[in-house]
Hints:
The structure is a homotetramer.
Chain A: H1 11-14, H2 17-30, H3 37-44, H4 48-54, H5 58-81, H6 93-109, H7 111-123, H8 128-155, H9 164-184, H10 195-208
Chain D binds a DNA duplex through helix 1 and helix 3.
Amino acid sequence: MNEAGPRWRRRKEARPAEMIEAALDVFAEHGFAAAKLDDIARRAGVAKGSLYLYFDTKEALFRAVVEQIIAPAVSRVLAMAQIPEEGPQNGPFAEVAPRLLAGAALALSQDRVAAVARMVIGEARTFPDLARVWHDQVVGPLLSAVAARIARAQAAGEVRPGSPRTHAFSLVGPLLMATLYRQVFAGVDADPPDLAQVAAQHAQSLLQGLILPATPPAKELPDD
Amino acid sequence: MNEAGPRWRRRKEARPAEMIEAALDVFAEHGFAAAKLDDIARRAGVAKGSLYLYFDTKEALFRAVVEQIIAPAVSRVLAMAQIPEEGPQNGPFAEVAPRLLAGAALALSQDRVAAVARMVIGEARTFPDLARVWHDQVVGPLLSAVAARIARAQAAGEVRPGSPRTHAFSLVGPLLMATLYRQVFAGVDADPPDLAQVAAQHAQSLLQGLILPATPPAKELPDD
Amino acid sequence: MNEAGPRWRRRKEARPAEMIEAALDVFAEHGFAAAKLDDIARRAGVAKGSLYLYFDTKEALFRAVVEQIIAPAVSRVLAMAQIPEEGPQNGPFAEVAPRLLAGAALALSQDRVAAVARMVIGEARTFPDLARVWHDQVVGPLLSAVAARIARAQAAGEVRPGSPRTHAFSLVGPLLMATLYRQVFAGVDADPPDLAQVAAQHAQSLLQGLILPATPPAKELPDD
Amino acid sequence: MNEAGPRWRRRKEARPAEMIEAALDVFAEHGFAAAKLDDIARRAGVAKGSLYLYFDTKEALFRAVVEQIIAPAVSRVLAMAQIPEEGPQNGPFAEVAPRLLAGAALALSQDRVAAVARMVIGEARTFPDLARVWHDQVVGPLLSAVAARIARAQAAGEVRPGSPRTHAFSLVGPLLMATLYRQVFAGVDADPPDLAQVAAQHAQSLLQGLILPATPPAKELPDD
DNA sequence: AATGAATGAGAATTCATTCAT
DNA sequence: GATGAATGAATTCTCATTCAT
Lengths: 224, 224, 224, 224
């Protein structure tokens, strides 16, 4: 710690995880504008001034939160969609998609990720940079990866034609919607949607179609 | 002196509306916390203090904005979902659903409604009351209406079994997602999704299924 | 409104008593600085702007309160001290003084007068004009009148030598103190001093002396 | 880093005192409502915001001023009234009382104490808590102590019967009245009463009686 | 590296005063 | 004469950022 060296280089890496963790909590709870550095410092167990040793600005701190905590979570989900050219996940889309949604449901169950998402939505207009970070590092890659996988499936004749990007919205929209719903109405709706359930049911509905074949009005079949 | 001059009344009732308009603009642009009453007043063409003749507090003004914009929007959308027992909309679900989504896409294209939605999402944690209003007056009724229509379709054997509420998420989630996307990434993504397109394509995908029949050009198999 | 005339002259006299009454109440309750013209207007049953038809300024309104309400009360008390050269009140000081104090106790029992006094004390430094009005129209005349009467009594050999002005403080100080005490500790002390009792007992104590003649340790005599 | 450097502590404890000093000045000069935090800060040589490091609110600062100035003043005066059972002050009441008044006159000559008193009187209605503090910690104990001493003198046959509490008003009222007079009419009356003079003359007048024995034109008796 | 006291620009809110009706 | 909506200067309080220690 005392000898000179390239150790300094590491400082950026060494950014106290506690600060970022604390910042995530506070941002998630109050939103960006209403988050107080005082709170963050207290929760991180450091002095307010210490935050400035590592982050030039409140916004920089937010950026770090996204980069250090959100990005990894995104990568994890992407790993399920970004199906490598070869490998076991490269099965039929009808099998990959449900797995993807299930994985996403799991990732989104961490309230922290969802809370940041809610925050970004609220502050996007005020801090365009936040929106850009979120778009470039989270939403964009995710959408593109999913759309790419869908395009591949279309090329393979597995998936119906149409804008792959729009198909991606079709695939992930309901799950994200449910996530937001849980976030926003946490204290209001005592019976919020279950993410895993939404993921599973929606995967089936979307893939197979919501409409049942117009069964010649036969007797009711026990639903399968 | 005694006659109730409606001269005043009219202005007295017009002013707040102009203030709410201005407030909507500013809130939508900056979010609640970052919105400055100075801006709102200037945009409304009144003095800062005049706002306080009609709204006790910044929060009260925010609430007024939400309620003022909500009311008509809800009526409009509910009219489309609250499919009357009889009437033309009471056709087969496969025809009703696309119309519903198309109508919603239209309603959501008004940036004002979408902007308020984004605001509420962003400030839900800070103003729980607001979340409750939004839930009880907007999202709840809407979801319930859609779910009820779906349940009816299920009873008629038109729609695959499963939680009607979750089916509702499947149906409207992508459209709402796209709406939010447009709001949040307005300045970031030069090529945002087109709501009408999403509505149309998603309706077809969801209803008919994203997966093409495993085309050894066989005949349609009863799903799964 | 259009014809010139002497009618205007009357306006000052016609100053609505309700406004002054209301102002007294509000000033007494909140002090000068914290008194709101809105309150005064509401209590007077007029519009806020109407106050300005009669009083140029908040301070002018206060001045009117003093002149219209306080001054008469003072005159009443003065009438008891300003003993005319002849007349029944011109008896021995030992008889006049108790009557004077008793009359003052009665006058001060009106909380309104006392409340304004409290207010002036609080705001004197902020609004020197108020202090001047109060001094010139209330306290000064009162003190001078009492001191003059005392001086006369001294000349007659009735009263012990010493500064008549200081004697005046000796005479009225306890009663005023008790009045203030009641005002300030209205909500705090459940058993405030009774003004009439203070007046009576103090008159006797001061006039006859608090100290009993060092009775050669004889048996207790029924006092006085 | 771990040693508790008292370096900071000292400054941290000194600052609030300076602020309270400054606040006393400004409050005394303008009263509570009209005092500007800006002024106080400037006079204390700190930034406006710094006040809020130590006092949550303008009212809290006011309270601190009162308590800070009260505490020593009360101790000092109580020491004079709380005549110990034994000791030199336990002489005849006729000797103790003048000493008591003289001491009080000295204490009240400090404008700071008097200024705070004036403030409390002025703001009592606005801040009932303040009135309570003042009553419970200052006026109550003082009055009780004086009344108790008087009661003792009555028991010893030194003092005329009557409510000891009212006698206390008789004793200290003129001095307090004079103190207030000086405060309130500081800028108005060029010749305010001298506290020591009032104390001395009133002590004699009250103890011996204001009325001279109906001198059958005898030779001047040494008064007493 | 760390601290936390200090700063001061900035925002919400109040209210005496004005003025069109 | 009366009204009360409108004004905007003034004030309290907040909080990101700085800096001496």
